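Cont'd.
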Amino acid sequence: MNIRHAKTFLLGALALGFLVSVVASHFNSYWLFITYDIAINVILAVSLNLINGYTGQFSLGHAGFMAVGAYTAAVITNQFGDLNPFAAGAVFSGALLAGGALAAGAGLLVGIPTLRLRGDYLAIVTLGFGEIIRVIFQNMQGVGGARGLSVAHGWTDFFWAFGAAAAAVYVVAALVHSTYGRGFLAVRDDEVAASAMGINPVRYKVTAFVVGAFFAGVAGGLYAHSKQFITPGGFNFMQSVSIVVMVILGGMGNTVGVILAAVLLTLLPEFLRPIAEYRMILYSLLLVVLMLARPQGLFTFRKQGDAK
Amino acid sequence: MTELLQQLINGLALGSILALIALGYTMVYGILRFINFAHGDLFMLGAFAGFYISPAVAAVLPGPSLGSGLVVLGLAMLICAVLGVVIERVAYRPLRRRPKLAVLITAIGISLFLENTGQLVFGATPKKFPEIIPVYPVLKFGGLSITSSQLIVLGVTLLLLVALRHIVLKTRMGMAMRALAFNPEAAALMGINTDWIVSFTFGLGSALAAAAGILFAIVYPSIDPLMGILPGLKAFVAAVLGGIGNLPGAALGGILIGVTETLVAGYLSSTYRDAIAFGILILILLVKPSGLLGKKEIEKV
Amino acid sequence: MNRPSPGAEKLDSPLLQLDKATLRFGGLAAVSDLDLSLGRNELVGLIGPNGAGKTSAFNLITGVYPPSGGSILFDGRPMANRKPHQIARAGIARTFQNIRLFASMTVFDNVRTAARLHCPRGVRNALWRGRSFRDGEKEISGQVMELLEIFQLGKFHAAAATSLSYGDQRRLEIIRALATKPKLLLLDEPAAGMNATEKAELMRLIQFIKDRFQVSILLVEHDMKVVMGICERIVVLDYGIKIAEGTPAEIRAHPKVIEAYLGD
């Protein structure tokens, strides 16, 4: 993946996002909300890909970080009444960043104890953490507990969603495709050899968790301000699994593939409405079939000597 | 005092059920170094197998009686044993050489598949499990009450543990299992048919999970397709607590978690009941990852 | 402890000094009271029968396992309980008995990962991608290609590391270690799996590395021809204990060594 002009791409994406959001009112609002979902899933998938795909830390609790971001952002914006666009923008960006920051903190809390754990243990512990986070929100009466929380402002629009997605993609790609970023892959491939070459595995694992969690938190904030109603149940293990499916389908450690997978898996339910009740069954079968037949994901085409 | 005793007995019953499930986890991990994520769903399938079999059994052996109950138990165990072997053969064996992650994901897929298909086929609403053994209070002393179902749970668990111990320690199959757990390459070189042993282990573990499912349904007669998720996770924690790969450890872990959870729910708070197991898991993995009875595995460099 | 020095330069303080270093696994001592000393620019061999503790000694030195006893000094600084990556930064690099390349990366990236040690740029730098980043990447790229060219692997730089021949993979592992600019290089059985021609080539290569990169080398090897051929000094281990030390000639004739290898 050549990102020589990465920064230009990012700025271009932000500009595009702004332009589209200005004329957004002319678009079908149903499909507009679908694009927000796509963007949110892209952020979730790309951020999990950093942890799972590039650093090889199998995390099954990503929805927990999303929850932290969602609730934090919602609580902050709920403090405000109607605001003019500029103030709203300022408050919203602040809320999103705060959500991301707290989620990053949660990522730190989860990342550190899990450092010495091997694959399967790590998976279960991260699952456990995700569940603990959910249970905490379920018992937090201040944010509605199990009944859920209403989000007053539906401030998520194309600019925010698309812009955040572009930022997330940029950050993960820019990080990984640098000499610094090779450290993530080294830790994934062979932690012992990486240490012997001067790479601090702890640093890299924690960084992956923190950055991944940050963006999951931002995605959560965007989600909250799109649906305008969040419940702890919506951030459960199933949600984490859905994100994992995107990463696996796209190919672990393949940013472009993961983005495509996120888009595909967001749109698919729309076109498969008639068989909606079979959705989870199909997902689960998909996981099994993928692992048996094509574990590298749908969108990975490893050519000889391709650096990822 | 009687309340404490009561809670202990309740906890013991719950712990026994968790122990049976945990044994399955630990056996499979011992020989394959792999956490069978779908194991908890075999617990659920055991309960449902019992649900659908019991009318047929009742037609032949009018119940509820101890005899007909045991027949239902045995049949459910058999069905799930077969199911466990099939799942291993179809989904896990092809991935034996692949990185652990692939099998883990497959296991998650199988688990979700079983749960969601169960919801589709059995219906998502909970069903009432029929009385397959006569339920009556056996002991009523002061505030203390022990029911026949609890006695059955404890009794059957004990029987199964003794049987398992016999199989593992005294039979050739058991010896092969232990050899495989100790050193897979050497075991294969000594002519042990790895595939057979793995299938046998899966069958055995699934049978125990099914038994746990039936026993659970006897004590808490409401069953639904998602009932295996939490007990499965808690049993996994139990296996880790005892030292994953260690059979007595799994049993011990199950009892400990069952008792702890019941006591905490009874005396402290029941809302955080389910989080207790996770808390214990994180604690164990931070303090002594090899578990109470496990040994440290050192990575060879 | 005799230290004959046939013309090798010895500075007053040794580069690496193990003092009664011990490594125990449960009841078993993999390495027992090992006294080992290496000066700058020395090529020392570490030999012994299988299970003698040679790789364990390496693991001790590189911090994979903390010593159960004794001390380890490198360049005068204590290394005993440091993490492997810290020890790498101090200037000790190694290769592994079973080649441990980064399987998902190219030849270039394998070396690049190690080269980062001396040109570290962090997260902010990678994200901002300003001048400092571009210059840093260019510098590292230059260093990596230079290293690869020296060992004639330049043309493979874009190939997957695992697509190389066995011999080339071993060389790549050594190159990767050299990219960390070590003062001490530990080679763990580099001749394993090689034929006679390749071994002769390897001997030339090791000598070349020592001279070109001014690095001390501690070599674990089973092949006696290789060891006797290039090592200035040899240390012999058996059951984790040092049983002999000296020049190749002395070791060849040493009764304890013969006994250890032939057994009784």
